[in-house]
Design goal:
heterodimer, A: about 45 residues, B: about 75% helix, about 0% strand
Chain lengths: ~45, ~450
């Protein structure tokens, strides 16, 4: 059975300010450690 | 109108086809086969891919039986908790992960999620081609032959325009994941030592922090990764699963976790003779690696099976990870077809992404002098580092009563899910910081 692509779109979830801040903080943290890991990888290759 | 649409969707859809009666032996066999062929098993065995098997083998070769064997078992238990949520979310809502993130959290978070996925998938696909190249290299097949085979396999998956056909192709390949059980058999592990390592699980006192953390994080990334969430949720939708199929979906996911844990641990055990015999893996070239190193210890048949297992692991994951990218891109582009049931003419973006990412990964592997083993181990690290973001959205959506209705997470699923997200974040962060600081020594 082909997946149903005619489902109505869902409304956006309303996130509290603290939830938004938490998500952004997590994202920034993950971005920083990703850069550190990539630097370590590139440094190891040099 | 928007308060009930998803529950209504889940409850009005017909269930996936199944035998009408469970009376005869044939029907019981058919029911068992149905549990073994599904998105849960494909996701779990698909994640027993090239870099994962190389990661398990590197752990076995570096530290022998001990800390990592029970640790690997624990990661598969965590994988079940996460994948069950993804399956439930897909079956109940009729929507893929990317689609749901876009609709519930907006385009910004949606594109970030899909961007993470496409990046980790591309790096992982490169490592799948590496695994196929290493495996085929053992049998004397040149690199270009391995790359062409990998791309042709993904093209074959798109051919036929049937999800069921694609699923059977994956399931047929997945059977050969058991090759690693054969390799472990040739390694003649002591049953007592294996049991003792599980029963007396304790930290490794003499392990160098950076190497130990790298393998620990790499093993987490070998079992719990973003592509699995996207894939299992989307494939559950593509298969036509609904809320009525949750029990079967859980059985399928649990069967996948058990099968993948057995073969993953087998790859780990198969490499422990290298630790026992103090073999330095750095002396082996990246063309044949473990199979060549194991050759004098477990014989030609065992080493050949290891190489075959690597080819299977890479091939199976080529199919599922390419599909994961295609689902993600197809779901977020309005009006694009997004199913293996649609022909390439009717879903050009879906099939183009499926084949395009595989071809790009193949081209990268053919770059002369590329550090193949280092890329393979680091692919899992990247997956682990980026996993917490995907897990947080999964947890929020699994508790979203608007879309999940009565099928929201239970108390224990939430506790376990949060614990897994926190531990993965801490492990990824610890590795990144320790590894980074070591570069200044």
């Amino acid at each position: 059975m082909t997946r149903d692509r005619t489902l109505p779109p869902l409304p956006p979830m309303v996130l509290s300010a603290s939830a938004q801040t938490g998500l952004i903080a997590l994202r920034v943290f993950l971005g920083v450690i990703t850069v550190m890991a990539v630097y370590t990888f590139v440094h190891g290759m040099a | 109108m928007l308060q009930q649409p998803v529950t209504a969707y889940a409850e009005t859809q017909i269930s996936i086809e199944r035998p009408a009666s469970r009376g005869g032996a044939f029907n019981r066999l058919a029911a068992a086969a149905e549990i073994l062929v599904g998105p849960g098993v494909l996701a779990m065995l698909g994640e027993n891919d090239g870099p994962s098997m190389l990661s398990y083998a590197t752990s076995g070769a570096s530290y022998g039986l001990g800390f990592f064997l029970p640790f690997i078992l624990l990661t598969f238990a965590a994988a079940y908790v996460v994948q069950e949520m993804a399956m439930r979310l897909g079956a109940v809502t009729g929507r893929g992960y990317g689609e749901l993130v876009f609709q519930r959290f907006g385009k910004g978070w949606g594109w970030i999620s899909v961007g993470d996925l496409v990046l980790t998938n591309l790096v992982t696909l490169v490592t799948e081609v590496i695994a196929i190249r290493i495996g085929m290299g053992f049998f004397g097949i040149p690199a270009w032959g391995a790359v062409l085979s990998a791309i042709a396999l993904v093209a074959a998956g798109s051919w036929g325009s049937r999800y069921s056909r694609w699923e059977r192709l994956c399931a047929g390949l997945a059977v050969f994941n058991a090759a690693f059980i054969g390799v472990a058999w040739f390694a003649h592990p002591s049953a007592g030592a294996v049991a003792a390592s599980i029963a007396t699980w304790s930290p490794l006192p003499d392990a160098a922090p950076a190497m130990f953390l790298m393998l620990m994080v790499s093993n987490i990334g070998a079992t719990v990764t973003p592509w699995m969430l996207f894939f299992q949720q989307s494939a559950s939708v593509d298969k036509g699963m609904t809320a009525r199929d949750l029990r079967r979906g859980r059985q399928n996911t649990a069967a996948g976790a058990v099968l993948a844990a057995i073969t993953g641990c087998a790859a780990f055990i198969a490499a422990t003779p290298l630790f026992d015999n103090h073999i330095d893996m750095s002396q082996y070239g990246e063309g044949t690696g473990f199979a060549e190193a194991l050759l004098p210890l477990i014989g030609r048949h065992g080493a050949g099976l290891f190489a075959l297992g690597l080819i299977e692991a890479g091939a199976m994951a080529m199919l599922t990870i390419s599909a994961s990218s295609a689902y993600a891109v197809g779901e977020v582009v309005r009006g694009a077809g997004c199913s293996f049931d649609l022909s390439p003419k009717n879903a050009p973006l879906f099939h183009g992404t499926n084949l395009g990412v595989a071809a790009l990964a193949g081209a990268i592997v053919l770059i002369p002098g590329a550090p193949l083993m280092a890329i393979a181990l680091n692919a899992n690290l990247l997956a682990t580092i980026l996993m917490p973001a995907a897990l947080v959205f999964l947890l929020i959506m699994s508790n979203d009563k608007l879309v999940m209705g009565a099928h929201v997470n239970g108390k224990w699923t939430n506790r376990l899910g949060i614990a897994i997200a926190v531990l993965i974040t801490l492990a990824g962060g610890a590795y990144a910081v320790v590894g980074f600081l070591e570069t200044f020594k």
